[in-house]
Amino acid sequence: APPSCEERRLLFERLVTQGSLPLANDVNMQELAQWTEGFTGADVENVVREACMACVREYQMANRTMAEAEELPWVIKRDMFQTTIANMVPSVTVDQLLVYQQYIPPS
């Protein structure tokens, strides 16, 4: 079964602290966990990776030189996570989860 909301929150916290880009003050781990209901651990990892890439793309699109980019505070913003999550589909469908639950007894 996909991780619970609390498990996803903890996973988000672990993954973003491992990364090299800091988070903006508007990013809330509990909110990210709630937005990703039904996402697997791998899906959550992909969300973090894609949000990081959105940050990099933002600076590239601003046509910054490398010298300018190095002086700017690179941060992953809430809207980067929102856009990423809105464009992702959980890798486990509701139907697949129902089939899984039929064969695996609850613990």
Main sheet specs: none
Helices and strands: which structural class? mainly alpha
Number of strands: 0
Through-space gap between termini: 11 Å
Portion in helices: 55-70%
| Percentage of β-strand residues | under 5%
Let me know the average pLDDT. 86
Question: What is the overall number of helices?
Answer: 6
List SSEs in N-to-C order.
HHHHHH
Radius of gyration: 16 Å
Shape: elongated
Taking pLDDT < 50 over at least 5 consecutive residues as the criterion, the unreliable ranges are none
Describe this structure in words.
The protein is mainly α and 107 residues long. Helix content is 63%, strand content 0%. The chain contains six helices and no strands. Helix 3 (41-61) packs across helix 5 (78-86). It is elongated, with a radius of gyration of 16 Å. The protein starts with a helix and ends with a helix.
